[in-house]
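Box 4.2: Ligand-aware structure prediction
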Amino acid sequence: MALGFYDLPYLLNIPGEKLPKVKHYYDEPHPYFGQHIVVIGAANSAVDVALETWRKGAFVTMVIREDEIRQSVKYWSRPDIINRIADGSIKAYFLSELTRITPKSVEINTPDGLVKLKNDFVMAMTGYQPPFEFMTSAGIKFNDDPDRTPVYDENTMESNVKNLYLAGVLCGGLKTNKWFIENSRVHAEMIIRDIFKKINAG
Ligand SMILES: Cc1cc2nc3c(=O)[nH]c(=O)nc-3n(C[C@H](O)[C@H](O)[C@H](O)COP(=O)(O)OP(=O)(O)OC[C@H]3O[C@@H](n4cnc5c(N)ncnc54)[C@H](O)[C@@H]3O)c2cc1C
């Protein structure tokens, strides 16, 4: 099982989220030229989307729950977005949350009260979560930790279910920045080695 965690976005759970203009996956910047877009989030995806769409001519507003752009944002992107916000090119509402989306507007709860903006697209870059339900249905158990890491043997990658192996970012549970491409390729080798060992053992 190497299912990653990009299939289940964290939802906003607000009115209007199901409108076709609300996107949990970013495609490319050109369709947003001249459009009023709201980007939700303050991590790498949100920052990339805000910068790219703004550079291709969109009117960009970021809505950010925290009081700053996340510290973990790539070191070459973070100063860029902070400066675009500081010079007013990209508008940002910190300590704020979207509360309602309509076909032509959005409402934002800000520390200074409710703000209503003209809006064409909402880019909800709110992150994703592993398919816990699917994993549970396969019999996989989870450790009693806040990240809900699945139970597996770190030497073989075999889960608590016999002959069911785990690989990739899924192994980190909610800690989705623990495993990535470079450090999880080794999982495949460990799994194949263990399968061969079982075959050779008869
Ligand atoms: C914009 C961006 C940039 C990134 N840059 C880097 C980088 O520079 N370096 C780096 O190391 N990492 C980077 N990452 C992270 C990297 O993409 C992931 O860590 C990596 O893809 C995880 O690999 P994986 O095989 O565990 O899962 P994934 O690559 O997510 O693959 C999971 C696959 O399983 C499929 N799947 C899910 N559920 C089911 C199901 N029920 N049935 C069948 N198939 C299913 C999915 O469709 C998908 O094809 C980046 C991620 C993003 C979004």
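In the box above, the bound molecule is flavin-adenine dinucleotide. Strands lie at 22-23, 36-40, 59-63, 91-93, 97-102, 105-110, 113-118, 121-124.
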